[in-house]
């Protein structure tokens, strides 16, 4: 850099803190590490989102941590319980009735636990839920939980029980690990839990399974293939697992907690985090499709309104767009004499502000669920230190409900944003010169993505409905004892439904954006190719060599070409060739010796040149698109994933539609023709199985590593958190706002925030925006 050139105060290449992204990358990396190691151990204190995901979805083996502290806690809690009973004390759920029936007393302690199982193993399953494979019912859907949810529930309940506050025997808990070791997963009804006195019903089916109940069903072998459904009695016998007889309080200890709600919420949060990151990548790719002005992602805008989520979203989008030749306003200079819209519409320009609170909410939800994962959710709870037992309501899963409702609202906002972006790309009146419905052929007969627009609207409407809170639908239950209840599992289930809808929107948006950048590049490269022969035609026909006149003509020509997007190729060539007459006739430099015949002849020649060149270029582009050359570093990852790894091609138009008895055997260039829905379904599957997220996060992880130690010409450093330091670890942006290595904002009034403003130390867990530390 020349000494005479002052460095920019807000360089678009500088990296700012991204706490949400770091949490997402760390969790994803941990999942991969656990999958690679193949096993996890639980100790009651260090369970996290990654462990739950790896154990429930990817088959990581589970064990109880064999250390004296853990085993001692369990033994001591059982001893306190028995000491209590030996003294003849009455203790809720051990020698009293349950809930509103707690005014009864009994000496049949084991019979009481059986009675508990009888009252809660009461929800609905259909015959199809108890048979192998998919349901054969043509009318009713599944009434049981997915096995991954159940595995997660078993893990989380085990982690809570081994904390030594529940009075449960080691042998009982070991039996749960044996079930998981033999891939025996209880069939649990989907509905029926209030998540108030815990998820009583779902957890009772796990308790029934370890008892070998002959009317409780399990799935065996589902982690490695199609499961076989059988009774718990048979499964335990074949696995040589001894059925458990529940001792005093053990039934209550197994079921009186929030494990099912927390399990489903945790699995949902993992996907929600990644959907939020994907939405930022899609915004970048869509901006390229519209050849947009991306100055709205400039760091100065976020710096002067320093919400951490806004800073992060702008930073991430700049990272995805770095190196792009299809946007202006960041690396490429913006056009200060731009015609048309002076700035982008809200669906693009306000993305950092729109996403900001939701990125922060997702970090907060993560903190809340991490606390819940390592909590004792039970009642009564045993205090080993004081040798006492306390009745409370640690089963109430209100924190889980609060976390999932924030997640669901975030998903809805992201979905609405993406739908607005999809609509703009498909609508030729808003897409800055792209054809109607992104049809690559003639738009008079090819309507390409019009149906996708409608589908996305449908998904977005359903997503909006699902965003409604669940917590305000509480009903008083169980003789008015459970007059308030969290509905945590219901909220988590609705969050999963929202994830499904948003994943469909993401698949549609990715398909649309890839189509958009292809067509944008097609037309851009066509015009680049056409310019020289057009100039040669003008020179030979009118001896025009004036650079300003040629430039004026070409500017008008390009504008007319893009405005002609709704027209078929022949009409478009006609329309654009009219520019010749308009410019030549109104130009004093060329109008003195106009030959009308020559003008008409040249116009026709121009029209033929445009049409022939376009048709030939389009066919060549279909076979060998050059789009990658124009994309940003991050958006290339998305495009390459779709076009190369998933083999989802540019949609060429009407010729793509498969028909019966086709002479070409429904093949194009050696690949099959498919409906648009089939192509999008391939992308959707890659969204749900995590392939798309892996591509995005690997890129971002590499970007973070490459920026970790970087020094620019102004002597500033970028540290491991992507934050600039001027030598003392602090960077000031010139408006009195500073950012330290943890993304902490320090304002002039001395107020400190850790990015999400939340610190939790009630369980020894502290969240600072960079992860959860114990």
Descriptors:
Phenylalanine ammonia-lyase; Phe/His_NH3-lyase_AS; disordered N terminus; alpha+beta; Fumarase C, Chain A, domain 2; three-stranded antiparallel beta sheet; 774 residues; ammonia-lyase activity; disordered C terminus; Phe_NH3-lyase
A few lines on this structure:
This protein has 23 helices and 18 strands. By secondary structure, the chain is of the alpha+beta class.
Q: Give the low-confidence spans.
A: 1-5, 709-774
**Strand content bin:** 5-15%
Could you give the count of β-strands? 18
**Helicity level, as a percent range?**
40-55%
Q: What is the CATH class designation of the domain at 265-333 and 341-517?
A: Mainly Alpha
The CATH homologous superfamily of the domain at 265-333 and 341-517 is called Fumarase/aspartase (Central domain)
The count of helical stretches stands at 23
- Tell me, rounded to a whole number, the average pLDDT: 89
Q: Oligomeric status of the shown chains?
A: single chain
Tell me, what's the shape?
A: elongated
The major β-sheet equals: 4 strands, antiparallel
Radius of gyration from the CA trace? 32 Å
- How far apart are the first and last residues' alpha carbons, in Å? 45 Å
CATH topology of the domain at 265-333 and 341-517: Fumarase C, Chain A, domain 2
The class by helix and strand makeup works out as alpha+beta
CATH architecture of the domain at 265-333 and 341-517: Up-down Bundle
């Amino acid at each position: 850099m020349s000494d005479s050139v002052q460095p920019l105060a807000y360089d678009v290449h500088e990296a700012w803190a991204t706490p949400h992204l770091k949490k997402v990358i760390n969790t994803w990396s941990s999942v991969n590490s656990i999958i690679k190691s193949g096993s996890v151990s639980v100790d009651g204190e260090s369970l996290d989102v990654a462990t739950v995901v790896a154990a429930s979805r990817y088959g990581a083996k589970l064990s109880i941590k064999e250390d004296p502290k853990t085993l001692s806690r369990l033994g001591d809690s059982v001893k306190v319980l028995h000491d209590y009973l030996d003294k003849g004390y009455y203790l809720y759920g051990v020698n009293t009735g349950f809930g509103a029936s707690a005014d009864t007393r009994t000496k049949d302690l084991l019979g009481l636990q059986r009675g508990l199982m009888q009252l809660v193993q009461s929800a609905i399953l259909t015959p199809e839920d108890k048979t192998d494979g998919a349901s054969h019912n043509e009318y009713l859907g599944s009434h049981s939980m997915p096995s991954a949810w159940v595995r997660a529930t078993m893990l989380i309940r085990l982690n809570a029980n081994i904390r030594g506050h529940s009075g449960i025997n080691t042998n009982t808990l070991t039996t749960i690990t044996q079930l998981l070791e033999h891939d025996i997963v209880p069939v649990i009804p989907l509905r029926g839990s209030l998540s108030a006195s815990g998820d009583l019903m779902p957890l009772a089916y796990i308790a029934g399974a370890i008892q070998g109940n002959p009317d409780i069903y399990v799935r065996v072998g589902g982690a490695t293939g199609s499961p076989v459904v059988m009774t718990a009695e048979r499964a335990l016998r074949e696995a040589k697992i001894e059925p458990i007889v529940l001792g005093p309080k053990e039934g209550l200890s197994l079921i009186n907690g929030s494990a099912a709600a927390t399990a489903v919420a945790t699995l949902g949060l993992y996907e929600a985090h990644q959907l939020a990151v994907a939405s930022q990548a899609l915004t970048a790719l869509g901006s390229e499709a519209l050849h947009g002005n991306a100055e709205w992602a400039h760091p100065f805008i976020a710096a002067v309104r320093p919400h951490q989520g806004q800073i992060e979203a702008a930073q991430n989008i700049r990272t995805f767009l770095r190196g792009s030749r299809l946007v202006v306003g960041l690396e490429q200079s913006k056009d200060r004499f731009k015609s048309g819209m002076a700035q982008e519409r809200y669906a693009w320009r306000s993305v950092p502000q729109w996403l900001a609170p939701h990125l922060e909410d997702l970090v907060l939800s993560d903190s809340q669920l991490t606390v819940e994962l390592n909590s004792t959710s039970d009642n009564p709870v045993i205090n080993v230190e004081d040798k006492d037992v306390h009745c409370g309501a640690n089963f109430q899963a209100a924190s889980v409900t609060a976390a999932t409702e924030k997640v669901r609202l975030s998903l809805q906002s992201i979905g609405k944003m993406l739908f607005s972006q999809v609509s703009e790309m498909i609508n030729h009146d808003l897409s800055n010169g792209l054809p109607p419905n992104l049809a690559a052929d003639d738009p008079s007969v090819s309507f390409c993505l019009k149906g996708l627009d409608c589908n996305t609207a449908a998904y977005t409407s359903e997503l909006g409905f699902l965003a409604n809170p669940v917590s305000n639908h509480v009903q008083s239950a169980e003789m008015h004892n459970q007059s308030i209840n969290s509905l945590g599992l219901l909220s988590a289930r609705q969050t999963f439904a929202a994830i499904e809808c948003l994943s469909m929107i993401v698949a549609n948006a990715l398909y649309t954006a890839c189509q958009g950048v292809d067509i944008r590049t097609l037309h851009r490269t066509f015009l680049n190719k056409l310019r020289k022969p057009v100039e040669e035609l003008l020179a030979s026909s009118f001896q025009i060599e004036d650079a300003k006149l040629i430039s004026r003509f070409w500017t008008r020509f390009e504008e007319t070409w893009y405005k002609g997007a709704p027209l078929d190729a022949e009409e478009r060539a006609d329309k654009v060739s009219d520019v010749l007459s308009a410019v030549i006739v109104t130009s004093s430099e060329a109008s003195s010796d106009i030959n009308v015949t020559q003008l008409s002849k040249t116009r026709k020649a121009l029209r033929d040149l445009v049409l022939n060149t376009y048709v030939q270029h389009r066919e060549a582009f279909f076979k060998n698109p050059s789009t990658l050359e124009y994309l940003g570093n991050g958006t290339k990852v998305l495009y390459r994933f779709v076009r190369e790894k998933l083999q989802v091609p540019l949609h060429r138009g009407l010729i793509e539609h498969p028909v019966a008895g086709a002479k070409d055997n429904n093949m194009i260039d050696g690949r099959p023709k498919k409906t648009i829905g089939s192509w999008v379904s391939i992308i959707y599957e890659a969204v749900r199985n995590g392939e798309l997220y892996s591509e995005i996060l690997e890129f971002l992880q590499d970007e973070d590593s490459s920026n970790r130690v970087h020094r620019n010409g102004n002597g500033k450093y970028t540290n491991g958190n992507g934050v600039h330091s001027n030598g003392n670890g602090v960077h000031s942006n010139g408006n009195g706002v500073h950012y330290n290595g943890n993304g902490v904002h320090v304002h002039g009034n001395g107020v400190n925030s850790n990015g999400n403003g939340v610190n939790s130390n009630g369980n020894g867990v502290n969240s600072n925006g960079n992860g959860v530390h114990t």
